[in-house]
Amino acid sequence: MTLRFIVAISAPLFLTSGLPLLDAQHPVQRPPQSQQLSQLPTGSSQQTATNEVTNADIFAGIKRHIATERKNSVDRKFHINYRGKNLAIDLVRVHNDRLSSLGGGKYFACVDMKAADGTVYDIDFFMAGQPGNMTVTETSVHKINGKPLYNWKEQNGVWKKVQA
């Protein structure tokens, strides 16, 4: 009985102790000294009293961008170019825990998307705009089936993509 109790308590602690190692894969986890990347306040997509962009604004902007791209494509898929190949993919989920401010009116979100062959792509979306009117400015394939193609590293207070 005591052994079961110890295992029941130890297993979750052991499993979650490795989570900080995964954090370098996205720029939201290790804030630089001069430009802090912060988790955004949750809330509705309506403007706040201070005109701050919320997670809901970023989420809505991504969903709107993906929906528009799908509507405009012949096959109703979201398309992204990766190494000269046109990927036709569908939204799986937007990582609500990866919606963050990069400072200077720029924002970041991580999105899982899936191809017809079952390949899962982690797409990094970069955005700019005002509350209620977020626009995707850049997308890049970050992972394929969980394997990172690049990571993030702070260099002189600015987050940069580095080889994985």
Residue-averaged pLDDT? 76
Helix tally equals 3
Runs with pLDDT <50, length 5+?
Answer: 5-23, 28-49
* Secondary-structure arrangement, i.e. CATH architecture: Roll
Q: Largest sheet, described in full?
A: 8 strands, antiparallel
Secondary structure topology:
Elements: H1 2-17, H2 19-22, E1 38-39, H3 55-72, E2 78-82, E3 85-94, E4 100-103, E5 106-115, E6 120-130, E7 133-144, E8 147-148, E9 150-155, E10 158-163
Antiparallel strand pairs: 1-4, 2-3, 3-5, 4-5, 5-6, 6-7, 7-8, 9-10
Structure summarized in a few sentences:
With about 160 residues, the chain is of the alpha+beta class. It has helices spanning about 1-15, 20, 55-70, and strands at about 40, 80, 85-95, 100-105, 105-115, 120-130, 135-145, 145-150, 150-155, 160-164.
Label this structure with key terms:
alpha+beta, 164 residues, Nuclear Transport Factor 2, Chain: A, two-stranded antiparallel ribbon
What does the model show?
- By secondary structure, the protein is an alpha+beta fold.
- The protein has one domain (24-163): Nuclear Transport Factor 2, Chain: A (Roll).
- Helices cover 23% and strands 41% of the residues.
- It has 3 helices and 10 strands; from the N terminus they run ααβαβββββββββ.
- Strands 1, 2, 3, 4, 5, 6, 7 and 8 form an 8-stranded antiparallel β-sheet that branches.
- Residues 5-23 and 28-49 have low confidence and may be disordered.
